[in-house]
UniProtKB/TrEMBL annotation:
<feature type="region of interest" description="Disordered">
    <location>
        <begin position="328"/>
        <end position="347"/>
    </location>
</feature>
<dbReference type="InterPro" id="IPR022742">
    <property type="entry name" value="Hydrolase_4"/>
</dbReference>
<dbReference type="Pfam" id="PF12146">
    <property type="entry name" value="Hydrolase_4"/>
</dbReference>
<feature type="domain" description="Serine aminopeptidase S33">
    <location>
        <begin position="45"/>
        <end position="253"/>
    </location>
</feature>
<feature type="compositionally biased region" description="Basic and acidic residues">
    <location>
        <begin position="334"/>
        <end position="347"/>
    </location>
</feature>
<keyword id="KW-0378">Hydrolase</keyword>
<protein>
    <submittedName>
        <fullName>Alpha/beta hydrolase</fullName>
    </submittedName>
</protein>
<dbReference type="GO" id="GO:0016787">
    <property type="term" value="F:hydrolase activity"/>
</dbReference>
<dbReference type="InterPro" id="IPR029058">
    <property type="entry name" value="AB_hydrolase_fold"/>
</dbReference>
């Protein structure tokens, strides 16, 4: 029996804890948290969105949930193990040594959403979540029925993390060092400066969130975690088959600064957008990639003009997806009609 509880986001938002048992990374009992936006039970849509956050993040973007609701989708979001609502004092925030471990909560969340919604489920993710979901879908695609058989209809990625940013030596010599240290000392923190640049930009933009769950300088990056991410990048670069169409939204350009500068409000201050463009074709199936000029790293936390453009592009793609699915169903019906009928088959 599932018992939804009131969520911290207030009216219309509820949460459900998903116990996951003992942590394979040795940090005791773990759970994930499924959040749903259900403002009115009188007329619930028969399709849904399931959203997954990135690193040093959790779900708090109410305007995103409410936009999808206005487009006729029920909205769900998953705070992964050791993240946001699922973080406990004994946990190392966001720490996993294998991105496949997330399959447990993703499988459970999808089943729960499918239990409540008769129609299909559209997946959405940001940043590291934009790596986790395609890898999971690729594994899901290998199961009987594949992604579509599991009810997944499409994928929306918001600035997905497709490669390690920075100088090229970090992606070869650096990755070898990450692999070694990540095996021997997985919880050691990767050395590097702690910058508030991106967090300060979000705060300047008026976005508010829990700083214990999303600190301005970010959580420390652990060698075991970044090793898992690099293994995920390598899988992506070899090519995936996610089984459904995808939309990728990203900023028009990247930028950085040692401290907050208004220019940071108009660029991706976290990832290299050229890498997103380069590796987008590795998802398989039909992929649409749209740069949003002036967008932040989280495109849906941009300033009003690029935010409006991102929502317009999203809505156009949702409209296309509806037509694409209808076309598939019509083509399937035509194929059934044209198929030779055997003796005993009813007309």
């Amino acid at each position: 029996m599932t018992t939804w509880q009131p969520d911290i986001l207030g009216d219309g938002y509820q949460q459900l804890s998903l116990p996951l048992g003992t942590d394979p990374d040795g940090e005791g009992q773990i759970s994930a948290t499924l959040v749903r936006y259900q403002p009115d039970e009188a007329d619930l849509p028969d399709r849904a969105v399931l959203y997954v956050h990135g690193f040093t993040d959790y779900f708090f973007q109410q305007h995103l949930a409410e936009h999808f609701a206005a487009q006729g989708y029920r909205f769900y979001a998953l705070d992964l193990r050791k993240c946001g609502r699922s973080l406990r004092p004994e946990h190392t925030p966001h720490f996993v040594t294998d991105l496949k471990f997330y399959d447990s909560e993703l499988d459970r969340a999808l089943r729960l959403v499918r239990d409540e919604v008769r129609g299909g489920v559209l997946l959405a993710a940001h940043s590291t979540g934009g790596l986790v979901l395609p890898l999971w879908l690729d594994r899901l695609q290998r199961r009987p029925g594949g992604a579509r058989g599991a009810g997944v209809t499409g994928l929306i990625l918001n600035s997905p993390w497709f490669d390690l940013q920075g100088p090229s030596y970090l992606r070869n010599v650096g990755t070898a060092a990450i692999d070694l240290i990540g095996r021997l000392r997985p919880k050691d923190a990767v050395p590097g400066p702690k910058l508030e640049t991106y967090g300060a930009s979000l705060q300047q933009g008026g976005w508010t969130y829990d700083l214990d769950w999303k600190p301005l300088t970010g959580f420390p990056i652990r060698f075991g975690w970044i090793r898992a991410v690099r293994h995920g990048h390598a899988q992506l670069h070899r090519g995936l088959d996610i089984g459904v169409p995808s939309l990728i939204l990203r900023s028009g350009k990247s930028g950085s600064a040692p401290a907050y500068d208004p220019e940071i409000d108009t660029v991706d201050a976290v990832l290299d957008v050229r890498q997103i463009a380069r590796w987008a074709g590795c998802l398989g199936n039909r992929t649409t990639i749209v740069p949003i000029d002036g967008a932040r790293h989280d495109v849906f936390l941009s300033t009003p003009l690029p935010l409006g453009e991102a929502f317009r592009e999203l809505d156009l793609w949702l409209e296309w997806l509806d037509g694409h699915r209808t076309g598939d169903e019509t083509a399937g019906a035509r194929a059934d009609d044209a198929r030779p009928r055997t003796t005993g088959e009813h007309a």
